[in-house]
What does this fold into?
Amino acid sequence: MSTNAVISSRAPISHRLAAGVLERIATVASCTEKPGEILRTFLSPAMEEVHALMRPWFEQIGMKVNVDVAGNIRAVYTSETGQSSPVLIIGSHLDTVPNAGAYDGVLGVLLGLALVEGLGGRCLPYSIEIVGFSDEEGTRFGFPFIGSRLLTEEPSETGFLESQDSSGVTIRQALADYRLVHPEVIPSTLNPETAAYLEFHIEQGPVLESQNLPLGVVESVVGQSRCHVTFHGTAGHAGTSPMAMRRDALAGAALWITRCESMAAERDGLVATVGQILVKPGAANVIPGTAVCSLDVRHADDAVRIDAVEAMMKEAREIAAERGLKIETNQYHAQPAVHFDSEIISLAEKAVRETGLTYIRMTSGAGHDAMVVASRLPTGMIFLRSPGGISHHPDESVLFEDVEAAIQAGLCFLDQFAFFLEKGGSNPLA
Ligand code: GLV
Ligand code: MN
Ligand code: MN
It folds into this structure.
């Protein structure tokens, strides 16, 4: 069949599937911890609502559904040969940032489901596992990628399970409580026959739109560091303490934040964000005694990022010394930049080309589950254009025709992946 024939034969089905994806995304958006905005965090009741919604969607097309100990929902579509065959995971995350858009993460999970639906009951020489990760954003614990880490890494090696949420609950405790309440959850283990991971995601930036392209093939993801920087001053009366005699923690933090902004602007491609400040005691008539700031730093080159974090910590120490403040710095997360698997990238490119679309190769500035999974599995990503480049915002959106294009490309990818395995595509876990 010619390329055009492939596309036109898939057009009616991709139209129907895209409509289903968008309708389901709207339904998932109603599962929230905070009325009036979308917020879903790790192991929350809102996440359980999403699982309850999705379970029948998977089951009605013959998929076997489980939730694992990490709170990841996992649905398996078995291969034509039964249980023992290679597995392709298609996944993304179901948690959100506060006041989120509806598409970040959820789109990738529901596109995966739509692709299995698009097979119309046809089985492939490999199984497909759709994974909806429980945490990618790190909203609850300030620590990202918990779902994909627990699936692919040895948690004992990282110590991240001791991170605490705002109520002092550790990740370790939250997981134990979750399992206690849901004894039926399965262990969070990767099927040893898993052969590759594919993730669809909105771009979350303006590049594809600026080039009038619906899809992009992601070849790498920038590295990121996350830190806490705490300025300790002396709390005091806002009316009685002369300006020259204060040690205001927040004023020191404010100066440092603007310095970080300038330092990032001075380095090509570097981004740095202070997205949270906790001020104590936190009253209008009390001089701030403590200011705890988050810091998120990203760059495609790990050496540039590491150097920038060091320079920002040094700056914090100098500002603190000048102002008579004490300082504590803690880098609690560092994720190196990731280059995806060349074979999966080229399969994704072939699939997009087969749909008749032009595309570009891209680097992602946003973090993704794929960057964690890539340490264990050949991994690739396909981006969908983000209208206005808007994401992490309620106005986040996606175009209907881009969802259709992603479905067409995804169906081509499934066929390409079968050829790839037939030619002896490797199983990295064997
Ligand atoms: C997740 O969206 C991130 O890039 O922080
Ligand atoms: Mn996000
Ligand atoms: Mn995301």
Notes: The chain has a mean pLDDT of 95. The chain has twelve helices and 16 strands.
